[in-house]
From TrEMBL, chain B:
UniProt record similarity statement: Belongs to the nitrile hydratase subunit alpha family.
Gene: nthA
This protein's UniProt keywords: Lyase, Metal-binding
Top-level taxon: Bacteria
Domain (Nitrile hydratase alpha/Thiocyanate hydrolase gamma) ranges: 13-193
EC category name: lyase
Catalyses which reaction(s): an aliphatic primary amide = an aliphatic nitrile + H2O
EC number: 4.2.1.84
Protein name per the record: nitrile hydratase
InterPro entries reported in the protein's UniProt record: CN_Hdrase_a/SCN_Hdrase_g_sf, CN_Hdrtase_a/SCN_Hdrlase_g, CN_Hdrtase_asu/SCN_Hdrlase_gsu, Nitrile_hydratase_asu
Taxonomic placement: Bacteria, Bacillati, Actinomycetota, Actinomycetes, Kitasatosporales
Amino acid sequence: MSAPLDIEGPTAPPRANGELVFSEPWESRAFGMAVSLYEAGGFTWPEFRTALVTRIRAWETGPTRDEPWHYYRLWLAALEDLLVSQGTVSADEVTARTRDLAQRPPGHDHRDGHNHTH
Amino acid sequence: MTTTGSGEHLPPALRTEALEQLLTERGLIDPKVMNGIITEYETNVGPLNGAKVVAKAWTDPEYRRRLLEDGTAAIKELGFSGPQGEHIVVVENTPTRHHVVVCTLCSCYPWPVLGLPPSWYKDPAYRSRVVREPRAVLSEMGLELADDVRITVHDSTSEVRWLVLPERPAGTEHLTEEELVPLVSRDAMVGVAKVEAP
């Protein structure tokens, strides 16, 4: 028997959005980056879609699904794949910058909205 | 101590921030423009747009005809357009014919009329199963269809986005277009629910 579908609550009323669109702030940034670049002519939507399909297929056909399904992780990876293939960024520099950001001492990361009382 | 490598184990939030910094430094994105886009999709673009399209089609036969003939143009008449709305095809549900929409390969969805897709629409279970066993999937989602109702599953492609025009429920003949709008749910416009009379 297949796993039941993940259905969140009753049918959503047609207010502005039927449900929370993004579950974490970084997902909205990853979404916004792709749409910004597309609108600025950085790539066509079919190009992005192809990159996304490739990432999703890789997850679905991977030998071990050790990574849980997380749509926006795949979205981010697809965006990076496309930008790397265009020569816009290199994976190494993204990794290097990510490590730099990870080195920030706690309390200096103002993006998460922590309060800074110690 | 760090190991060199892909950096796959660093949190995606940091990797997103790193990418955003690099693209901003290169002048490829403007964080202000990006904030505007995010706000737009979080608060403005959503299924209410599609509900207006449906309610108009229910009350204006000439509009309904145009909508079924050229969805993109008829939707644009109401001011809804944008990415993922370049080619919208509208299919009409009837008592004997039911349409349901999926994107088997990823998550294509008519953003200008429905906003961003709900998580179940992107889920591998829905995407793979609704094609193989639509009746069972719809039943699990609370929609029981009689055996003689013909179900058509529409798979989005890189070009076409689908919108379902649900059946107008019986008992709503006296309602105005404005009164019908709130009855139309997102799920009915994807084809996984029916519109119920109030």
